[in-house]
Task: structure prediction
Amino acid sequence: MSSVKSRPEQDLLSLAEAAEFLCVSKSTMYRLLDQGKLRGMKAGKQWRFRKEDLLAYMRRGPAALALANLPIEVLEAELAAIAEELAKAGASTDDCDDPALVGEAGKISQLVRRMVWLLHSCWGSDLHLEPIWEAGEEYTRLRLRVHGELREVRRLPLALHEPLVLEWKQRAGLAVEERSRPQEGSARLTYGETLVPLRVSVVPTLYGERLAVRAIPTHVPTLEELGLGDSPLREWMTQLKGLVLATGPAGSAKLKGLVLITGPTGSGKSTVRAACLRELAERDHNIMAVEDDVTYMFPPGVAQLKVKNFTCAEGVQAVLGQDPDVIIVGELKGDPELAQRVAVAAESGHLVLTCQHAYDSISPLYEFLESGVKQSLLAAHIIGIVNLRILRRLCDACKAEQVPEEGLLEEIRTSAEAGGYRIPDSAVFYVPVGCDSCHGEGYEGYADRFAIEECFTFTSTLKAAFLRGAPAEEFTRLVREEGQPSSFAVGVQKAVEGLTSLEEVMRRIAH
Ligand SMILES: [Zn+2]
Result:
């Protein structure tokens, strides 16, 4: 035991302070000292600890901390619980467990691997771990965001919170001892051939640190895979691509215009935008992305700007100086300056793909106007606008026929017809029931949800109406006359086809 006097007093922590620093109980501290796992010094009867010894202990890994705090059986139980969730998502621990992680020390790592694989398997975007103190109950809540919805997956013992946060901090290269400031970093987990890049964010809260992990998708699906193979969006992309191929590098006709992909949170806007890019991608294109939030790992060759210390609008302005062919812009978020820049970028001969939070395909056009972008500029450069929705697919094994109540059916019939779809008299509707195969949900799992779209191509008829100042209602009517149904109408059609329920359509789409 070294002498205490040689060091200034403020460098040393008391037992209580050290316990707080490590987030363990005082009795755990005594046990660690007994077992010789932690170095301490005696000043008279009092224990004193050097910060560097505590840090050295912390760096031995989250597993050491976890095991100091709770019996191994608890950790085993959590591993089993996540394995069960994996099975529900149609995945298995065989695909995610790392055989190199053996013994007790590897269990926290294994737990993290299973959680991330669960997120990956159910097509989730974010994983949240937060300490919760509720009347008489304390736990760590694990939630996943899947298709925009936040779902509680598990309540873990609170004693696991700190080790899990530590494990993440180490993986993301964050300062393990920093607990009072927000930190951000990135990590990547590999599962065989599959790479899962992640963005890790930790913020201090009243009850401890809250962790959020975002999965950044790497596999860009095709429009076909997304069920949008027959969509006008596909047609726009094919036409745009044809334009480039026909003219070649020296040609004068260029890939240009503005495609707006809209929808509520979790409707797959970023995914569809990435799929569009995939349709277009040519090796000799200069593609640049400007986003507040990195939503996708685009293929190599696409320059992704990290918006930091400058605004998205400034970013768009800046990339114009980089001779781009295609510009990807993050959400417009009603920012008038960004809307202006985007319109100007399209006008100056670039193809711009951007997203907007919206519940239909027509209102974003009018929002552009409100942002102060000129009507003529919009009419000249917008190619089309698409609005996306995600619907749950009924479980085929248990769905049951049900005749909707007459008043309700009448209401739905009227709205669908206004949206461009006539319900056939012989239509049969189904409701969810719940069975073993769908884990009592009545609907298929997350991976089986499907996208529907409402969209319009900015045809010459529509342009003329827009230029003479047609109000949104009239414009909508013209869009329907051109044969483009509303998302409600498309949803009802999917219900008639037996893919989903009327309840699901009404819950997700306003009519
Ligand atoms: Zn079922």
Q: What stands out?
A: The chain has four domains: 9-60, 67-215, 218-387+453-458, 393-448+466-511. The longest strand covers residues 194-205. Residues 393-448+466-511 form one domain. The longest helix spans residues 72-88.
